[in-house]
Amino acid sequence: MSNIAVDIYSTLLSSTVMICFGFCYGITILYGSRLVLNKTISIGDLVAFTGYIDLFFTPLFWLPGIISKIERAIISYHRLEKVFNLEKENLKLEGISNNERIHGDISIKNLTFNYPGNMDIILDNISIDIKEGETLGIIGTIGSGKTTLMNLLLRLYQVQDGKIFINNTDINNIELAKLRNSVSYITQDNFLFSTTIKDNISLFRENFEDSEIEESTEKSMISDDIGNMKNGIYTVIGERGIDLSGGQKQRVVISRAFLNKSNIVIFDDTFSALDNKTEKLLLENIKELVKGKTCIIISNRISDIKDANNIIVLDKGKIIEQGTHLELLKNNGLYNKFYNQQSSRDEDSILN
Amino acid sequence: MKNKTLDRCYKIAKPHMKTIIFVSILSIIIDILEITKPYLVKVIIDDYLTLGLAEKGFVSITTIGVFYLALVIIGNVLDYISRMKTNIMGEEILYTMRNKIYKYTQDANITFHDKTPAGKLFVRITNDVEDISALFKDVIATIFRDVISIISIIIIMLYFSVKLSLLTFTILPFVIITSIVLTIILNKIYDASKVVRTNINTFLAESIYGAKLIKIFNIQKEKQKECEDLTNEFIKTRIPASIFEGLFPSAMKLFENLAITIIILIAINNWFGITVEVGAIYIFVSYIKSLFEPINRTIDNIEIVQEAIVSINKIYDILDQKEYLEDFESGEKIENLKGKIEFKNVWFAYEEDNWILKDISFTINPGETIALVGKTGSGKTTITNLVNRFYDVQKGEILLDGKNIKTLNKRDLRRHIGTVLQDPFIFARSIKDNIKLNKKMSDEDVRKAIQMASAEDFVNSLSDGIEEVSKERGESYSAGQKQLLAFARIFAHNPDIFILDEATANIDTYTENLIQKSIDKLSAEKTAIFIAHRLSTIVNVDKIIVLDNRNNSRTGKSPRTFKNWWLLLQII
Fold this sequence. Notes:
By secondary structure, chain A is of the alpha/beta class. Chain A has 13 helices and 10 strands. Chain A folds into 2 domains: 3-85; 106-351, 3-Layer(aba) Sandwich (Rossmann fold). Chain A has helices at 3-37, 43-85, 146-153, 176-181, 197-202, 210-219, 223-227, 246-259, 276-289, 302-305, 325-331, 334-343, 347-351, and strands at residues 106-113, 123-130, 135-140, 164-166, 169-170, 183-186, 264-268, 294-298, 310-315, 318-323. Chain B has 2 domains: 2-324, ABC transporter transmembrane region fold, CATH 1.20.1560.10; 341-571, P-loop containing nucleotide triphosphate hydrolases (Rossmann fold). Chain B has helices spanning 2-13, 17-49, 61-107, 110-115, 118-160, 162-169, 172-209, 211-216, 220-269, 278-319, 380-387, 410-416, 431-436, 443-452, 456-461, 479-493, 509-523, 562-571, and strands spanning 55-56, 59-60, 341-349, 355-364, 369-374, 395-400, 403-404, 417-420, 497-501, 527-532, 543-547, 553-557. The longest helix of chain B has 50 residues, at 220-269. At the A-B interface, helix 1, helix 2, helix 4, strand 6 and helix 8 of A face helix 2, helix 3, helix 7, helix 8 and helix 9 of B.
């Protein structure tokens, strides 16, 4: 109902109450006067009676206001109820919470996925095995499902039982908090809160020393930039502070991976705004970081993933090629095509 | 300060003066009718009932009764009309104020948006505007009426009995002092709670936007705590408010009953030599009640007035910042653009003295394709911001076809420049609307642009094709798909100058090559600026401009030799 309509109805209601009151009062006086003249009641009785009419109507005067408040409250309650009734993520109660550390063995078996409410198949029969300590590279065409696959690994969307396993346990049976704590997923959207750099890296968790945070900024090649800022890691960025460039944002976000001691580290196209030199140094640091851990690197650039133990090539939700860099080159498929196109414009080839 | 607030209120009220005057006149009439009612009852009691008469001359009790009922009906009809008028006025003010502030946010330059958190603007556009509307809806009409009521009741009471009235009025100083003290206290509290409310909104906007990140890093608990802390802070400011708000009506009821008690005691005991008729007691008690009704309402209204004043000032503090408004009307119109861009000794800093660009000079000739390379943070994106005049340079000048861009019409300037950013913004509209951006073009043109951007496969895979509606901020699409749409946008609008700012970062090599071909075709005769941090994207350009960390720029031809490339690599 439009605001004006609500106004009209509630004003009409209160006017009606007022008119009723006036009539009641008037008729009481008229009829009461008769009774006084007949000596059935005294003047005092009449005055007292009018007083009671007053008392009787006072709450009625509030009625229109109360009704419209109740109306609004009911509508608001129904809206909230709709939100509350949405399926919630269950962080704690569900699944096995074994106290043992989550190792990085990841295994995906015949996974097919479409987003809820949309029949388009995003991932089609995906099977991957990653052993702890290995690095998996993912390359693929636009919209081939790279990011979706990572979202599923962190249970941002629900998958069927028996599809994704970490540590040989179905991820649906792992406590959600535990699952997410054991994965550092660096997304491609560079989301930063408008707060200090420190809070953006530690993400408001208070159990980190400043020195640990500074160390992580060194590893992610952003410490020089931060050093140039007046307040160092306490510099406020974003809406309420200074604006960082695309590449600086990306490196602040990457610092999170160095700070977290997770066993699984995922970089989702997070080097796209970095220059070659910085990227090379950063990749060295990442290699150091993921020693003994499981790592997944998604990138459009061969140079980021060529050293991975295993590389998968995704196209339209399907794995079309799989193997090491050298194996894939021999395959003469999409990977080889990417490689040729990139190497023709590669620095080394330009220099040669 | 006070005058400024009054000025601002007047500015809002001015277009509605007719309504306000009309409603005020109605109020006076309604008041007179209201005040007459107890008098009629008094007449019935004193002139008829105490004397035991049913009629006196031509006037009977019934006549007076019918007259009374007539007053009730007329009074309420007028009251209804006056309330309708004020309600509609309130809605109109809500509409104009909301559009005004929204328009300001659209006309304001980037500096304004850099400085003002979105959450704060949401509060201005929603809650604050409603507070102002409430002022005009609930207060403006009643406040005249209540003031008139109070004055006229006092006069009538004096008319009936000066002594009795003066004795009753001894209670008024207490009423006034209590009101003033409580108002001052509440004023402070409302100010404080508004600040917290704004902070809560800013916090909420950001955490909802960052929901995915919060989940991935499992920091719901930390965020929940922050939310609870903020809400607690808000409640802490509201508790004293409730205490004092609650005090008001109780205190007033107490004063009202005290006044009535005084009247009755005096009348019964004949104190101060006052003798009163029964009807006069009745009328005095009625008028005291009628006197306190507007007093109570005025006090209730004070909260609305306070809140509205805070909101009016907050909104006008924004609206009056004319320095942030962009001027799209003045300036020389751009007819035919050749596309020559010159930077002459340009100095620029976002914040004072923190120079991002120091004495940068370069020339891009019409039809040239140049690359802007340099480390992250070296000012590449800043240069695109300056060419679009999102910011003005502090020293030096930027020339377009030999004319300082400050002298050119801003709307025209931006129309002729097409920029593709690394993280393009997608509206929650259809693919078609996202490409057209309110410009008139046929579906055919849209499809052509999609084809040029190599986005055909992607768009065809959507069940509704170009009519498919995106989720908020393009969340239904991957980063690469969003970049493809941004390219389609540029191809559809066909500007004279292209700026591609890391525009292919999330696009696979194969698709990138396809887009490159379209760009080459289109930019053959147009000026194009490629921003890149990688040499691979810039091999075929005419010229390279290198920005280094020391905020210097060098211009050179695209290197053809190994030696030159190697030198270039050393710089960046």
